[in-house]
Amino acid sequence: MGQRMSTPTKYRFSFGPWNISEGADPFGPEVRKAFPHEKKFALYKPMGFDGVQFHDDDVVPGVDDLTPAQISKQAAKVKKMLDNQGLVPEFVAPRLWFAPQTVDGAYTSNSAKDRKYALERTLRCIDIAHEVGSKATVLWLAREGTYIRESKNARLAYERILETINTMLDHDKEIDVWIEPKPNEPTDMAYVPTIGHAVALAYASKEPKRVKGLIETAHALLAGLDPSDEMAFALAHDKLGSVHLNDQNGLKYDQDKNFGSANLRVAFNQVRVLEEAGFGSKGEFIGLDVKAMRTQKGSCVTSHLTGSRELFLHLVDKVRSWDQKLEKQLVDARDYEALELAVMKHLMGVK
Ligand code: XUL
Ligand code: MN
To answer: Any idea which ligand is nearest the CA of 142?
Structure first.
């Protein structure tokens, strides 16, 4: 393993109000009662979380139908609620996949009118981020992609995404842009499917320092990639803005399972890479994007969040107690068979 920071990082955690979900899926209705945001905010601190991730309409419901003054007023109200609870708004992301104008994409839609809507909504989202006291906006490019290759010009689409990022950077000098790559769902083939694509866009932008990535475990796995390597790539370029830790059981729908629940070793390696880089020591959050099981009784269900956080911290202990001398010996001897067994025994708590 590489060099660890001398002072161990004290981690801060975040999640979004959508992670306390009401349990609907595409095949059925909600199975738990809806829970107002104000009540959700009161849960964060007692659960060990300090950061709130937002979509623009989590802050300002019905944002498309409101005037700038009304938006401002609502954002100020949410800021007060956060301040009252001692919470930090980690980012605000434009929800560009619900409106009728985003059926065929947002910045890459074939309709100029719809592209204009997407840009305006995005700039409004940045204003909301600013007002609520957040330093970043996240672009999950939900519908930027195609169901059939011939429907869009991919080169032009990438140019349009870059142009949008540059306009965002100009709009507010205090807000950074974090791109959250995902290879598919809801589109068949998404643009910006990996962190490599996101980092290339960051370097191509007019202010590379202000453009980073947000890596979600499940999204990397859906791309057939190892999330810890994806994180390491971003970290090597100082381009990891945040993470969405969760898990994914194979190549199927985006599952947002509890962190470490499908593959503990893959989770261990993500924690290892983050620890070694001192991620979190500059105030970055360990973000979670996990969904409660539909089958879970009760309301409001939060055990998937506290469980994932607890598992992360257990894995931090595992990383810190890992025998680095042994690792070096085995690496020097190129005995990776013995190294693998040592890792597995360490994870199992076997001496
Ligand atoms: C979608 C996803 C989103 C983003 C925020 O798969 O992960 O929740 O994290 O827009
Ligand atoms: Mn996510």
So the answer is: 1
β pairing state of 189-190 and 286-287: unpaired
57-104 per-position pLDDT tens digit: 999 999 999 999 999 999 999 999 999 999 999 999 999 999 999 999
Closest-CA residue, ligand 1 atom 10, reads 140
DSSP state of 173: T
Report the percentage of the chain scoring pLDDT > 90. Answer: 93
Ligand 1 atom closest to residue 55's alpha carbon, by position in its atom list: 10
In the annotation, is 55 catalytic? yes
Q: Tens of pLDDT along 158-180?
A: 999 999 999 999 999 999 999 99
Domain 12-322 has CATH 3.20.20.150: yes
Rounded to whole angstroms, what are the CA distances from 239 to 55, 79, 257, 275? 22, 27, 25, 16
Cross-sheet strand order for the sheet of 88-93: 88-93, 51-55, 13-15, 286-287
- Ligand 1 is surrounded, with C-beta below 6 A, by 93, 138, 140, 180, 182, 216, 244, 254, 289
Which among 89, 91, 109 is positioned nearest to 100, based on CA atoms?
109
